[in-house]
Amino acid sequence: MTATPDLGAPRLASPDLLRSVFRRHAAGVAVITANGEAGPVGFTATSLASVSAEPPMLSFGIGTGASSWPAISRAEHVGVHILGEHQEELAATFARSGADRFGAPTAWREGPEEVPVLDDVLAWLVCRVVARVAAGDHRVVLAEVRLGDPAGAGRPLLYHQGRFSGLRD
């Protein structure tokens, strides 16, 4: 069944409209990490996007009010981790304000460029930050891929309708 858009009563732009529309958009789930002055920082991101193949570059968004923003705003390198559907609790931990994100049971190690690298992810990258672009109350971070590993096992974790889920066959 096809639904025709109701053009007679559109809602004016607002934060609520944007959130409502993007709840319908399924997104992959990533965790972004960096080494901060007080130790490792990280956050869950659903805004990860491939930007360029030559050079290999990606982007992600982060709110300027986020606890990780001060470290990300100064970081030369970041870690990007693609989560599997078995990592819903890890995604929730890195999304929760005030959580001890790198304490047990989070398994990680210091990787290249002193970037925290999470264990058991589907794929990970270490990237060099090349720009931070102001975008309202967020910053869009552009980062050039330096190295990584796409060989993790499993299926991707998704975020849709305000909750984490997996792919359906």
What layout of secondary structure does this protein have?
Elements: H1 15-22, E1 27-28, E2 30-36, E3 39-45, E4 49-53, E5 56-63, H2 69-74, E6 77-82, H3 88-95, E7 108-110, E8 116-118, E9 123-135, E10 138-149, E11 158-160, E12 163-165
Antiparallel strand pairs: 1-11, 2-3, 2-6, 4-5, 5-10, 6-9, 7-8, 9-10, 11-12
Describe the structure.
The chain is mostly beta strands. It has one domain: Pnp Oxidase, Chain A. The chain is 13% helix and 43% strand. The chain is built from 3 helices and 12 strands, in the order αβββββαβαββββββ. It has helices at residues 15-22, 69-74, 88-95, and strands at residues 27-28, 30-36, 39-45, 49-53, 56-63, 77-82, 108-110, 116-118, 123-135, 138-149, 158-160, 163-165. A 7-stranded antiparallel β-sheet has the order 3-2-6-9-10-5-4. A 3-stranded antiparallel β-sheet has the order 1-11-12, with no helix packed on it. The protein has a two-stranded antiparallel sheet with strand order 7-8. It starts with 14 loop residues before the first helix and ends with a strand. 29% of the residues are buried. The model has no long low-confidence stretch (mean pLDDT 95). Its EC number is 1.-.-.-. Residues 22-166 form the Flavin reductase like domain. This is Flavin reductase family protein. It is an enzyme of class 1 (oxidoreductase). It comes from Streptomyces doebereineriae.
